[in-house]
Amino acid sequence: MANVLEALEVTKIINNVTVIKGISLNVGRGEVLGLVGLSGSGKTVFSKVLSYVWKPSSGKVLADGKEDKFAVGLVWQTPIFDKYKVIDYVEFFGIKGSEAKELLSDVNLEAKRRADSLSFFERKRLSLAIALAKDPSYVVFDDISGVGESGLSFFKEFILKLRNKGKGVIVTFHNISEIDDIVDRIAIIHRGKIEGVYKISEFKNISYLILAFDKVDEKLMERLKQFGVRYRDGNVVELSYPGDPLDISKAIGCEYKIIEIKRINKLSDEIFFDKVKRLNVEN
């Protein structure tokens, strides 16, 4: 899959504070990447750098292999417009006449309405139309929340249309569960760094096994590796093994005793918050 976007060691410093810290990331043609993080993690700043709204302090952002601000569209988190007509904005940023009207029809907006009279959801749709007016290689959606259930469905359907057309898409969000049905991969941003990029299947209602032992040492941990050790907390070990706990009991031998067994099914948001919790402990 050819990359439509490559971020190469991107750093952004604002008021002497390093907000984005050497991020490298890519998005393929026809791929939807979810950029997920807590408030203040750097999602919006990174979105603006990826969209050429802000220049990186160091590093590069490449669109189709070159630095090209016209190859990317940004759907702003909180778009604000003046008193001009809706169609004026689309024509100013790209296409004219009947093409502009057709694009506005695609996002369900009347061409002659004043932009400053639009609701929040309508302003987001106008921001989308402006982003698409340049026929970009990839589109960055900086947070599509706050538009209600029907509004979220609208944007998700539109994102899938863009993917089917071979566009790259980045969508930022707080909760994976809201977008896990449209994204191909998830990138977790935490304190200005990408802490991991995962296939969405790694966040889909995964079953974990939690075992409490009478004792835990290095020999036991070595024997448990084959069952997918996720983490250890004292004498409690969490495994990603979906099979029968008896298999584990046989493998570890009689010198270790399992004193409690619990199986839990975690939803995508729980898995995300678990990862962030561990990042906070590690950092």
TrEMBL record:
Domain named ABC transporter: residues: 5-216
Record flagged with keyword Acetylation: no
SUPFAM superfamilies: P-loop containing nucleoside triphosphate hydrolases
InterPro entries in the record: AAA+_ATPase, ABC_transporter-like_ATP-bd, ABC_Transporter_VariousFunc, P-loop_NTPase
Keywords recorded for this protein, A-Z: ATP-binding, Nucleotide-binding, Transport
A molecular-function term among this protein's GO annotations: ATP hydrolysis activity
Gene3D superfamilies: P-loop containing nucleotide triphosphate hydrolases (3.40.50.300)
Entry-linked PANTHER family: ABC TRANSPORTER ATP-BINDING PROTEIN ALBC-RELATED (PTHR42939)
Protein name per Swiss-Prot or TrEMBL: ABC transporter domain-containing protein
Lineage: Archaea, Thermoproteota, Thermoprotei, Sulfolobales, Sulfolobaceae
